[in-house]
Design a protein that fits this description.
Blueprint (H helix, E strand, L loop, with lengths): L3 H8 L3 H8 L7 H14 L1 H12 L4 E6 L5 H15 L4 E6 L4 H13 L4 E4 L7 H8 L4 E5 L8 E5 L1 H14 L5 E5 L5 H12 L6 E4 L6 H12 L3 E4 L2 H14 L8 E5 L3 H5 L3 E4 L2 H16 L10 E4 L2 E3 L7 H7 L1
Parallel strand pairs: 1-2, 1-3, 3-4, 4-5, 5-11, 6-7, 6-8, 8-9, 9-10
Antiparallel strand pairs: 10-12
Helix pairs in contact: 1-2, 1-3, 2-3, 4-6, 5-13, 8-9, 10-11
Length: 331
């Protein structure tokens, strides 16, 4: 059986350092933490630690890993999930991955050492498949949300293809042909839906502005609007939308007269500003996550196929779309 002494020897640190690394002690250097986590993964120590603890009792704790702490979508979902699992005697431990696979792995290891009974997360990629597969063998329940990266895990997602499709069609129905789309990833269901709507309207492929998780969104968006001069933008999420609005203010562009906009993710300020949105069924998402997770936690051993819940978005029309057909008819 692998012990902390084995990890310490491989990582060339003391046994107490191993313990402090798993507690995320601030006085341990990042370099030492990395060595400890790499050694523990190589030896399987974290997983064995979790397994031994779970044999004696359940922690009644669920780990929720948020991929973007600034996005109100995730905090809203967290409130709903916390409410639902609390009624079954579970508490929620919230962490975040910052859209970084390395930080995701580190957080998964810390959740393992915390003996969580289940993990809810938005996968950053499939780079941590090995660790997740090993951890899942210890009867830890996993639910992936928003992105379906792992076919062997339960999931709750929204039909992003449909959301982008109906948004783009809505732009086209108002006379827009120069439609820009922002997205975090170069390949996604949102992009597929956007392209399909343009294809059906016999329009060019449009312009896709790829915005990986980065701090300087504003300058990238500014340059794209100046270069391509779109009449309409489909925004990937409310964080991107906020930066688009800041750019418009700097360029003295008004919405919808100079630029029309539809955003994924509806919230209070989006509604207050009259921005048309692709709204996701937040309450249903949170309830579905909790229902699937609690169902898994009631099983002695996970043997049934993955449960996948795919929910439908809706378009909420407000005042952020200019009707270019009406303008042409007027002229």
């Amino acid at each position: 059986m692998v012990t902390s002494r084995d990890v310490a020897k491989l990582a060339n640190v003391s046994v107490s350092t191993v313990s402090r690394a798993f507690r995320d002690d601030v006085y341990i250097s990042e370099e030492k933490k990395k060595r400890v986590f790499e050694a523990s993964e190589q030896l399987g120590y974290t997983l064995n630690f979790a397994a031994r603890s779970l044999k004696s009792s359940k922690s009644k704790t669920i780990g929720l890993m948020i991929s973007d702490i600034d996005n109100a979508f995730y905090t809203y979902i967290a409130r709903i999930v916390e409410r639902e699992i609390k009624s079954s005697g579970y508490r929620l431990l919230i962490t975040y991955s910052n859209e970084d696979p390395a930080q995701e792995l580190e957080t998964l290891q810390l959740l393992a050492s915390s003996r969580v009974d289940g993990i809810i997360f938005t996968p950053t990629s499939t780079k941590n498949r090995k660790f997740i597969s090993q951890f899942q063998k210890q009867n830890t329940a996993f639910v992936q949300t928003y992105r379906h990266h792992y076919d062997n895990l339960d999931s709750v997602t929204v039909d992003d293809y449909k959301g982008a499709y109906i948004a783009t069609k809505y732009f086209v129905s108002h006379g827009h042909t120069n439609i820009m789309m922002t997205e975090q990833f170069p390949q996604s269901f949102k992009i597929d839906g956007y392209k399909q709507a343009l294809h059906e309207a016999e329009l060019p492929n449009g312009h896709i502005l790829c915005l990986p998780f980065q701090p300087d969104l504003k300058s990238v968006i500014h340059q794209a609007i100046v270069d391509h001069k779109p009449t309409a933008i489909l925004s990937a999420n409310n964080i991107v939308t906020l930066n688009i609005l800041k750019v418009c203010k700097g360029l003295k562009l008004t919405i919808p007269d100079d630029l029309s906009i539809i955003t994924f993710d509806d919230n209070d300020w989006v509604s207050l500003l009259g921005i048309t949105a692709i709204a996701q069924p937040m309450e249903e998402i949170g309830q579905s996550i909790a229902r699937i997770l609690l169902s898994r936690l009631r099983e002695e051993e996970v043997t049934s196929p993955p449960m996948n819940s795919r929910l439908e978005p809706i378009l909420i029309a407000r005042n952020s779309i200019r009707n270019l057909f009406a303008q042409r008819n007027y002229n």
